[in-house]
User: Fold this.
Amino acid sequence: MNNISFADLNLAPEILRALTESGYTVPTPIQAQAIPMVLEGCDLMAGAQTGTGKTAAFALPMLQKLLPLATPSPSPARHPVRALILVPTRELAIQVEASVKAYAKHSHLRSLVVFGGVDIKTQTPHLRTGVEILVATPGRLLDHIEQKTVQLNQVQMLVLDEADRMLDMGFMPDLKRILALLPRQRQTLMFSATFSNEIKRLSEDFLVSPKLIEVARSNATSENITQKVYLVGSAEKHALLAQLLRGSDAKQTLVFTKTKLTASRLARQLHREGFAADAIHGDKSQLERIQALDAFKQGKTSVLIATDVAARGLDIDHLPMVINYEIPSAPEDYVHRIGRTGRAGASGSAISLVSPEEEKYLFEIEKLIKTTIQREAPLTSPAPAARAPRAESRPAPRTDHHVHIRAQHTPVSKTPVHDAWFNKPYEPSVSTRVLAPPPDLPSKPKSQLPALFMRRKVSTPDAED
Ligand code: AMP
Assistant:
């Protein structure tokens, strides 16, 4: 499997050229498995999370299948929506569509991203020009359906990306409404980081005899995440966090909080203490969120505080450290969170600050990942609420887990990344279709985020956290 090249996967020269230009040399495991199945026309249920290369796993065969229908004709009628990609969040929507656009750049296939929080009127003209591949968050797609600005009767491929998160965010009714409008004769691909019973039911409802693929995050990636827990009282968390941020040789740290309020407060406090920190959460406007993310990716800020929803699907290469300031009550979120680090062969560190009230969630997490996470002693003078490590009292983990995450005590090794491509500096992804700024917002000539102009702060279900 590992010796397969993209050329072996029967992809057209124009796609192969785009891949070479993107720096891809070999398919990731999920790509090697999924691409032939999708090309064969099978429905697919894939257990894979962001960081495994799942976007290309569905986008490349999708483009390959649509290529015979590609046309340079300017007529909108010749560019109906043929593939629909539904994703839970705006950020993921933007990322996915940017990837599709990059892979399709040598073809006449058009793509567009639509998501809530921006004026719907700015999206309509672009939909009207015709696009073969539409990436959308469910709520905004329904708005367009209601306004009759989009037709879905020619959709032949549907992708449900991060399906588990769509369910978590309450999108099930929206999904059902959308699916009822699609042609029955179609291919459906579902991607989910976790396989809950609910997800299995969803696949039974929406997929036909799906092929099942389950990949761990690539072995090199997952084994490179070092996990640690500090048992610490809530009142001591801030001091410990600051200490970790100062002491660490990690250049950039993504810090997770449970609430928007804590995220903002923490960002403000850290800023006052001299850290280049910013927050990203659902109360921030889309433009603010993307600017904060871009500043972080470019290294202008070193600490980004995020809530789960806001951080979902973020593709930040080389992120050396994730800190859970508050651990999530849903154990799956822990897996998603620490998946932000240790990606693409790089090593990473995931540190959780756990107060006595949160310990019950920690046990749930350990049950899910079937691993006991190493408890660390406090860094300096013992914090009053810190307690003795109790890892030895926990049952030995089973080793048959599919989430191959190594929990250990040792500091992050600075192992060089094998693939030189992963070392290339981050290039901000640009959303593909230029949406005109609303009239009351001055257009910024330098902005690389034309699709994200906002009139006001909006909190839609796409962004709630
Ligand atoms: P994804 O899991 O789709 O979010 O992809 C994670 C990251 O891996 C993205 O930055 C992709 O551009 C990158 N990527 C995906 N496939 C490959 C590949 N075959 N070789 C190198 N990088 C890849």
The two ends are 39 Å apart (CA to CA).
